[in-house]
Amino acid sequence: MIQPKLKEQRNIETLRTPVIKDIGMGILLMLASRASVLGMFPFGVAFFASCFDKSIAYIGITVISVAMMTASGGMLLTKYFAAALIFWIYTRFRQNDKLIIDAACCGGSMFLGGVVFLLYNFVGAYDVFLLLVESAVSGIMFIIFKKSQRLIRDRKKRAQTAQDELISIAVSIGVMITGLSGIVFPYNISLANIVSVYAVMSIALHGGIAAAGSGGLCIGFMASMSSPSAIVMMGIFGISALFGNLLKSFGRTGIAIGFLGGSAVALLYAGSSFALPVTIVEIVIGAVLFILTPQKLQTRISAFFSRSLKIEAISSDVRVKEYLSMQLFKAAQSFKSLEECFENASEKRLKAYNKDVASLFDEVADRVCEGCPNASKCWQSNFTSTYRSIMLLLNTIETNGILSIESVPASFREKCLRTELFVVEFNHVYELYKKNLVRKGEAVTGRDLVARQYKEISKLMDSMAEDITSGFTFREDLEENIVAELDKEGIIAFEVSVIEGVHGKIDAYLGLNKDADTEKIEYVLEEVLKTPMGYESDCANGLTHFVSKAKYSVDVAIRQISRDYSDVSGDSIDTFTTEDYKQYIIISDGMGSGKRAMMESHITLKLMKEFLQSGFGVRTAIDMINSAMCLKLDYECFSTVDMLCIDLMTGICEFFKIGGAESIVCHGANVETVFSVSLPVGMVSDIKIQAQIKKLSDGDTVLMMTDGISEAGFGTVRTEWLKKEIKMPFDTMEEMASSVIETAVKKSRDAVVDDMTVAAVRLIEN
């Protein structure tokens, strides 16, 4: 996404002639260059790098040089001259402004300039240590000066001042005041101390008590950091600013009296005015100047300090009520649909089990062993051994739900020449075997099924309780940052609420003006929340909803043809995304065709969708629907469930096949088939639900279908043509889905004897 934030003008213009308006920046650069700490002068280069117009860089470097000579730093002139020159050269080659990178380069320029100086003035390892400290200070001050510059530049469109910007302004003022060190009036009155007093009183007047205290501490320390009394000065200004702020209701006079009171307290502890780094005379002069300042000037000063950050957040009880009502409403809708399914329920449903293992083995032998050179040996000479081996495999598939190559004993793999084909066909024939044997069994009373319903409802309620307890968190720690960053872009947010779900999804609800720039808001949210964000909707309560985006998206194309080209299809299909970044594609095939099959598949699909969108798990949803379908009238109408669940954050997909047809997965150059391992929904009261997990990557494709597609064509393995189809280089999923269904019709000799439905799915990395 293109960042909507306005780019700062790159300082790559050709050198120009200075103008009158450059005098102000030149004076500030002079003051910053004169400020020192522990004999070092890192502030001038940092100010030059962050704020000074590089199109008059030669003026800036000259000002730094003059400042160094007036501040008794002439011997260090080479270091800072070289540092400023190196950074200016860097700006001629950089592509765009990046705060952290530019700050690091500022520190690096200071280090390289120091290396140049040490080449002819090296004393010992302590010099290297001081150079590293000075380089770090220079990089940090670059960021502080840059934040102060942005606040000053945007002050007319800003509604609030963030805490970090307030501190940056205070530190910057302290540096400039330090640059006044050495300017002394008669009677040893320090100009730096007078200006410090004036600045701290201004903060106490226009800011809150926290702003006054922190501003006094910062200015007190920064203004006297070149002397050993910096800590004492910091304490005096901090306590005096707090006293002044307490009396701000009396106006500027109250601020001055409070500040003098705080200084008097410090004097009492010191015992003598000579022990203080600031004199009473300097404090009085600063206070008088503060009281006599024209109101117009104070109004301009208030633009930087009067607007501390305030958020009108949504109260916690309202948040919880809204979330719980939303969850309960979804659950109510699910049970309402379940009630509709129960309306025509009867007390019992027939099912039967009549195991006919011989027919199962014969079918597998016909499909696999025909034409095999070892067929007679296996089924005649070694019949008993073969029979026992397959009985073991039957026990394995009944236990696990599916047979894999790894679960086949090594002795069987050594004897059978077609082990892989045997596993594929055994899974397929066993599925058909289960479908047939359920038609011949004993009755199951509706009372047992209703009891199972109560059990599943209990699970649903437990799931809801767990979601309410740990399913979401209100991220109040991020809300102030969002408001501050939006304000920097000129966007006022008068309400904010950030909710993080258990799966990492983030919802941000903002109260904004109607003309707010959505793209800018998305960019700010992405910067603060460290995840892609997008506009979702405008809520009924006047808030605007933004939601985090997933790593992947899914391109889905669906094609259907009804049996004999009729208007009614027994297949139902739907695709949707849930709040936990799960994309579902569900196909339900009603047994048979026509309106009855359509009704059964539609009910199954509707219930599945509503349960999953309400936040319930796949297994719980299927158990609920299965027990409901088992209570239908005693005609034989069952529905398959063929479900694909794709995690849009990881690309991991799960296949849930409850009597569904095969699915084909194309992962790079590999193509594999996913078979069903359970009976259709509504046949038996207790079905085994087993997910088959695959990991998809960008561009991987899945074909889902009903048996009208998978059974089309002739041959031993009928889905081979689908494996070739999925590897074709189709540009879109619409093309693939259309090609598959057209080919299926052709392979059926244009006779559509069953409903046909296909879904072509491709995973796309965002």
Brief summary of the model shown:
The protein is 53% helix and 15% strand.
Largest sheet composition:
5 strands, antiparallel
Cα gyration radius (Å): 39 Å
Distance linking N and C termini:
11 Å
Low-confidence stretches: 1-12, 306-314, 342-355, 439-447
Portion in beta strands: 5-15%
Number of helices: 27
Would you give an account of this structure?
- This protein has 27 helices and 19 strands.
- The strands form 5 sheets. A 5-stranded antiparallel β-sheet has the order 5-6-7-9-8.
- A hairpin with a 4-residue loop joins β13 and β14 (652-658).
- α1 runs parallel beside α3, α2 (43-50) packs parallel to α4 (77-91) and α21 (476-488) crosses α22.
- Mean pLDDT is 78; it is low at 1-12, 306-314, 342-355 and 439-447.
